[in-house]
Specification:
Elements: E1 4-7, H1 16-23, E2 28-32, H2 43-51, E3 55-58, H3 62-76, H4 82-86, E4 121-124, H5 134-142, E5 146-147, E6 155-158, H6 160-178, E7 181-183, H7 199-203, H8 214-226, H9 229-234, H10 237-246, H11 248-259, H12 262-269, H13 274-302, E8 329-332, E9 335-338, H14 340-364, H15 368-382
Helix pairs in contact: 3-6, 8-13, 12-13
C-alpha cells in the first residue's frame, strides 16, 4: 500500500469521522480539487489543513487526462455499447433521467455547478485544474452524453452513472501515474483500482461499494475496532495531530504487522461481494491482530499501566533505611513511618524501572499503535490529556 492516498471522487470530504481516522493511518492524502473552485470544506477539514501536513491538493496532468480520454474514445466506438450509451444520453424532457435519488452526487459536489439539470453529476472543465480534456468534452457534448450551460461555463454535466465511471477512471489513472492508493469515504462509489481496464463493465453495474485495497481497509477496520465512532467524533483535531506526531514509529511498526498478512489480504481482495470481503477482514482481525492487542493489554497491566502513581505498587524496603538516613525513620502512633527523603531513595527508582519496562513492552509489540489510539480516545472522553 502506498503511504500517500488519493481521495476520490469528490472535491470535498463527505465524512469527517472517516477523515479523522485517516489522519491516524495515512502519511498524506491528496485530492483533485482546483484552486479556483469554491472552498466549502467543513471546520474539521479546515482545522486538519491548518494544523497538519495530511492534506494536499493536486490537479490531473495532461498525461492523466489523455489516458482517460483515449479509454473513453475507445469505449464510445464499441458497437456493442451503443444501446448502453443510449440509455445514458441526456434528454431535457426527462429530468429524472431514470436515476435513483440515492445515486445523486452529494450537495458538496454541486457547489458552483449550474442549477440546470440538478440530477446530473457536474465535472469541472475549467482551464486551470480541469478534470477532462477539451477533446473528450466536445465529443461527449456532440454525442448527447454531456450538457453545458454555455461555451464559457467551466462545468459539464453527465448522467450520474457515466460521471461516476469517469471520475473513478480518472482517480485510477492519477493513482497509477503517481504511485497513490485511491480511497473514498463514499460507500456508493466503485473502488478506483483497475477501473481504467474495465470501463465497459462499470457502465453495466450499479454504483456499489467494492473492496480492492484491502490493506487500507484493514487499517481502518483495526482503528474502528478500538476507537468507537462516538469517540473519534469527540476527539479534537489538535489532539489527533499531536498523537499522529508522537506515535509515528508505532504506526510504522503496525504497518509492518499488516505487511505480514499480505497473502491473506490478497485473497480477500479477490472476493467479489463487498460484504463478504468486510466479513473476511473482521475474521482476520479477530484471529491475527486482536489476540496480540489483548496480550499487550495484559502485559502492560502487570506493569501498572492502569494504575495511578499513588497505587503503582510502591515497594519500600524498611530494612534498607538506616536510622540516620536523612532522619527518615520516625515513630507515629507506634508505627514506623518513612520520611520523604527515604521514599525518594527507594520508590523513585522502582517507579522508573516499571515505566522503562512498560515502554519496552510497547516497543516490542507490533500492535502498540492500536492500544495507544484506544487510550487516547478514552482519555479524551474523560477529559484527560494524551
Amino acid at each position: 500500500m502506498a503511504s500517500i492516498a488519493l481521495y476520490y471522487p469528490w472535491m470535498h470530504f463527505q465524512d469527517t469521522d472517516w477523515l479523522k481516522l485517516a489522519l491516524l493511518s495515512w502519511e498524506r492524502i491528496v485530492r483533485l480539487r482546483p484552486r479556483t473552485v469554491d472552498d466549502r470544506d467543513s471546520e474539521v477539514v479546515r482545522a486538519i489543513r491548518g494544523e497538519s501536513d495530511l492534506l494536499h491538493e493536486v490537479t490531473p496532468g495532461r498525461h492523466d487526462l489523455e489516458t482517460v480520454a483515449d479509454a473513453f474514445f475507445e469505449l464510445l466506438g464499441y458497437e456493442d455499447m451503443a444501446w448502453e450509451l443510449n440509455t445514458l444520453r441526456l434528454r431535457t424532457a426527462d429530468p429524472a433521467l431514470g436515476v435513483a435519488e440515492d445515486l445523486f452526487p452529494p450537495p458538496s459536489q454541486r457547489i458552483t455547478e449550474p442549477e440546470h439539470h440538478p440530477a446530473l453529476l457536474w465535472i469541472y472543465c475549467g482551464g486551470t485544474g480541469t478534470k477532462m480534456s477539451s477533446t473528450l468534452r466536445h465529443q461527449l457534448l456532440d454525442a448527447g452524453l454531456a450538457v453545458q450551460v454555455d461555451g464559457r461555463d467551466p462545468w459539464v454535466g453527465l448522467h450520474p452513472r457515466l460521471g461516476a465511471v469517469y471520475l473513478t477512471a480518472l482517480a485510477d489513472t492519477v493513482a497509477r501515474h503517481n504511485a497513490l492508493s485511491p480511497v473514498t469515504d463514499d460507500p456508493r462509489m466503485h473502488h478506483a483500482v483497475g477501473a481504467l481496464d474495465r470501463l465497459a463493465d462499470l457502465l453495466d453495474l450499479s454504483v456499489t461499494p467494492a473492496l480492492r485495497d484491502t490493506r487500507a481497509a484493514y487499517v481502518h477496520l483495526s482503528l474502528r475496532a478500538v476507537i468507537r465512532p462516538e469517540r473519534i467524533a469527540a476527539v479534537p483535531v489538535s489532539r489527533l495531530v499531536a498523537f499522529r506526531q508522537r506515535y509515528a514509529p508505532e504506526l510504522a511498526a503496525f504497518h509492518a504487522h499488516i505487511d505480514s498478512l499480505a497473502t491473506e489480504l490478497a485473497q480477500i481482495a479477490a472476493v467479489e461481494n463487498p460484504e463478504m470481503a468486510r466479513a473476511h477482514l473482521q475474521v482476520l482481525y479477530e484471529r491475527s491482530t486482536k489476540p496480540q492487542l489483548d496480550a499487550l493489554r495484559r502485559a502492560l497491566r502487570a506493569f501498572g499501566v492502569e494504575s495511578t502513581v499513588g497505587t503503582l505498587g510502591l515497594k519500600v524496603d524498611l530494612g534498607a533505611v538506616s536510622g540516620t538516613a536523612l532522619g527518615a525513620l520516625a515513630v507515629s502512633g507506634g508505627r514506623p513511618a518513612l520520611g520523604a527523603g527515604a521514599v525518594a531513595l527507594t520508590v523513585v527508582p522502582y517507579i522508573a524501572g516499571r515505566l522503562k519496562a512498560r515502554r519496552q513492552q510497547r516497543t516490542d509489540s507490533p500492535v502498540a499503535y492500536l492500544l495507544a489510539a484506544e487510550q487516547m480516545s478514552k482519555r479524551t472522553r474523560l477529559g484527560f490529556p494524551i
